[in-house]
Design a protein that fits this description.
CATH architecture of the largest domain: 2-Layer Sandwich
Radius of gyration: 25 Å
Number of strands: 11
Strand content: 25-35%
Structural class: alpha+beta
CATH topology of the largest domain: Double Stranded RNA Binding Domain
CATH class of the largest domain: Alpha Beta
Order of helices and strands: EHEEEHEEHEEHEEE
Number of domains: 2
């Protein structure tokens, strides 16, 4: 298990390493073994902060927590990370299923749809002209829009791009609006492939 530890005003103990690795074992059961892990443990004004970042396929996941005790902070960060991992996996599986479904609709009874829909037009067999009939999918009905006001998608204070990315991951937001230190409005958007995109508002 490849885990990189960083302690800021805090010495990383074996007990804490064991807590982290036990929690990561659960996450590895969800996402598999193929990800790097970085753990930053810090103490600021008697507050213990734990930041655990993993890098599975389709972008990083970050678990942040703070508490009076480092063990509690680590466990809370791991719990947050585990919830994100479950959400990440279900989103990935749904994407895989929809891709498979669209492939199945292209094929019917072992033959392509186009072959099944080929026909001929004419008065007799000799004068008949082959015609390909294209079938288009039915237009999906639009669903009613539900508007929900959310303060979690907007940062109240100016922040750097790195802070905004961490905050968006921490709050598990696909869209996050913030101002950079110069006061410019920026929008972070998580695309369908899981990558974060930065949009500068003119």
């Amino acid at each position: 298990m490849n885990v990189e530890y960083t302690g800021r005003q805090y010495e990383v103990t074996n007990a804490i390493r064991k807590e982290v690795e036990t929690g990561l074992t659960k996450i590895r059961k969800i996402l598999g073994d193929k990800f790097e892990t970085k753990v930053i443990l810090a103490v600021e004004k008697h507050r213990h902060k734990a930041e655990i970042t993993i890098n599975p396929r389709n972008g990083p996941l970050v678990g942040l927590a703070q508490a009076k005790d480092m063990t509690i902070a680590v466990n809370e960060a791991l719990d947050h990370l585990e919830k994100q991992a479950i959400k990440h996996k279900t989103k990935w599986q749904a994407k895989k299923r929809s891709a498979r479904k669209s492939e199945e609709t292209k094929r019917w009874n072992g033959h392509s749809v186009q072959e099944e829909l080929q026909t001929t037009v004419g008065l007799s067999e000799k004068t008949a002209v082959p015609v390909m009939v294209h079938k288009y999918p039915a237009v999906a009905k639009t669903t009613e829009v539900h508007l929900v006001r959310s303060d979690e998608a907007v940062a109240m204070r100016p922040m750097t791009l790195e802070e905004a990315i961490k905050e968006a991951h921490f709050k598990d937001r696909d869209v996050f609006i913030f101002r950079d230190p110069k006061g410019k409005v920026m929008v972070l958007h998580r695309a369908k492939d899981g990558k974060m995109q930065l949009i500068e508002v003119p």
